[in-house]
Amino acid sequence: MNFNAKIALVVGGTRGIGFDVSQKLINAGCICYITGRNEDDGLTAQSRLGENCTFIPSDVTDEASVIELFRIINDKHGRLDLAVNNAGVTSRHAPIRDMDFPDWKRVLEINLLGPLLLLKHETNLISKHAGGSIVNVSSCAGLLGVAKQSAYSTSKAALNMLTQVCAIECAEEALPERHSIRVNAVCPGPTLGGMNSEERLKANPESTKHKLQVTAMKRFANPGEISAAILWLLSDASSFVTGTVMPVDGGFSAGKF
């Protein structure tokens, strides 16, 4: 795929799926901006990704921080072509009767309100130039209820609906003065790294066993398998695809319980 000279933003691009998709975009010719809250991780990722990568510290729960992020990109390039919204956290494992309300709020702020803020600014900037594509990184936990993960599952289900609403709005607004924007989501199944780091998998053998049992392909994805789907949705190869919530989950959401 050729993304030569495209301007891309990968929110949560310092590791895991976000890092892998950033690497693929740069290899395909993009100028890529990555964000994260941890400056050390961000600068390390920037160094690994090379001269066509710029790290900008940013917090998706802080509107002023998000506004500053888009000011920097707009001042430098006057446009944005591609965006991947990959910031996300998991919730404390507990039944609803024992849920921790501050934890619930934290998960929704990062997993739902963060993407809402990003979509607001991404759609405004992308529409000023030649249009483009946005991909939200959701989860198969937003397609099926996952016990003891009420905050996480709810936040991702809401993100899926937000994706579809935004896609409809952008398609209907595609006028000569507002260029077309496609908006889609990918729903990864259990994926190595991040929330499924080697340390966490070893520390929670029963949870690991269960995830493998309910995944038809009986293994975890690697980040590259998820980023390949994201890249396709960003590319012109998916030019008639918008409002899609795409499982990339090894058969998890097919319902093998």
Helix/strand-derived category reads: alpha/beta
Largest sheet: 7 strands, parallel
Shape: globular
CATH superfamily: NAD(P)-binding Rossmann-like Domain
The CATH topology name reads: Rossmann fold
Q: What's the domain count?
A: 1
Q: Say how many strands there are.
A: 7
Q: Helical residue percent?
A: 40-55%
CATH hierarchy: architecture: 3-Layer(aba) Sandwich
Q: Quote the beta fraction.
A: 5-15%
- Residue ranges: pLDDT <50 for 5 or more in a row? none
DSSP helical segment count: 8
Strand order of the largest sheet: 3-2-1-4-5-6-7
Arithmetic mean pLDDT:
93
Could you give the order of the helices and strands? EHEHEHEHEHEHHHE
Radius of gyration: 18 Å
Any idea of the CATH class?
A: Alpha Beta
Span between termini: 37 Å
Fill in the keyword field for this structure.
257 residues; alpha/beta; 44% helix; Rossmann fold
Please, could you describe this protein's structure?
The chain is of the alpha/beta class and 257 residues long. It has one domain (7-194, 222-247): 3-Layer(aba) Sandwich (Rossmann fold), CATH 3.40.50. It is built from eight helices and seven strands, in the order βαβαβαβαβαβαααβ. It has a seven-stranded parallel beta sheet with strand order 3-2-1-4-5-6-7, with helices on both faces. Helix 1 (16-27) crosses helix 8 (223-234), helix 3 packs parallel to helix 4 and helix 4 packs parallel to helix 5. The longest helix has 26 residues, at 101-126. The radius of gyration is 18 Å and the shape is globular. The chain starts with 6 loop residues before the first strand and ends in a 9-residue tail after the last strand. The mean pLDDT is 93.
